[in-house]
Amino acid sequence: MAAANLFDRVIDLADASVERYDPASLKWMWGEALYTYALDLLDNELGEDRYQSFNCAWLDAHIEKGYRVDQSDTMAPGLTAYAMLRKTREARYQNVVDRVTRYLKTADRVLDYMPNHLGTSPEGRLYPKSVWVDSVMMYGVYASWYGREAGDEAIYDFARRQPELFAKYLQDPEDKLFYHCYWAKAGHTYPRNKVFWGRGNGWVIAGLPMALEHFRHDSPERAHAIEILQETSAALLPYQRDDGFFETVFNRPGKTYIESSATALIASGWMQGVAEGYLDKRYLEPGLRAFEAVVNSLEMKDGLLSMPLISAPTIAIQLIPYLGYKYTPRGNDWTYGLASLFFAGINYRKLEQRGLLS
């Protein structure tokens, strides 16, 4: 597919998704947060307000009926609220941003400077207190963006500490890949054996460059975050399949299944990493191949363009984590999967605009 057509295909998917979904019916949760935030980034890329009314309608529906901010997954909508606040200056979005920021400042820390991923939510009563690799994206990107831009030094300080802490608790010291969780009381990663979840490592590869956009260039934490991105990318590279995809448990090739959200996240991070100079050019071809693999997998469903092969929301199930990953079903158009490909599309355009695709 021609270069311009790849990005156009991503926009076609975004247009199809807003036709498919009623914004008021979408949940107040991490997947929908990333999806609407990614739509806003596409608007910025296009220089349009094509998706702004959709995003405002989603926020307004939840502001009217009430929403919770009690864990990393329910504070992630702060990304969209802050984006809409910057564009509309509406007080109702400021209220959401203030509530999200207050949560980050006051949430109990379970490890060093890190909050329990499930916070004080009802879901949190059913799972050990823990930090999750998902939070690299769920609160890491918001904290770096808001903290730096709003001049909130407490939040910025929180943000710049996080990459090192995620690596300290979740990165395997030998393999340099990330585990899904670290259980605070037990004092170990979970899974305990070397089972590496694709989307989890995708959060790292895509999320770190997004946070790095807002780190001060002279900060030592920035340099360390780049090192983490580089060593995780090097560890991940051998697991890319010939067809460009990654599998949902990628270090057990052929035992699970190809997964498009993980593949799109890794594509996004590698393309942004090369464009920004965090990664050398050996990641350009693998990043492009991953992006093209996912774009070329798009299909028609119910008369609209659709993204397949996205695994359902996934937790590290107690006692049987590997089987939990292996048998999590895949479906079409999970919101976080769409967001992953939108992120990748934006970074593909960045490469194109910087003359790195020739």
UniProtKB/TrEMBL annotation:
GO process terms (BP): carbohydrate metabolic process
Keywords: Hydrolase
Domain of life: Bacteria
Keyword Manganese belongs to the record: no
GO molecular function: hydrolase activity
Pfam families xrefs: Glyco_hydro_88
Alphabetized InterPro entries for the sequence: 6-hairpin_glycosidase_sf, 6hp_glycosidase-like_sf, Glyco_hydro_88, PolySaccharide_Degr_Enz
Entry keyword annotation includes Nucleotide-binding: no
Matching SUPFAM superfamilies: Six-hairpin glycosidases (SSF48208)
Protein name per the record: Glycoside hydrolase family 88 protein
Natural source organism: Halioglobus maricola
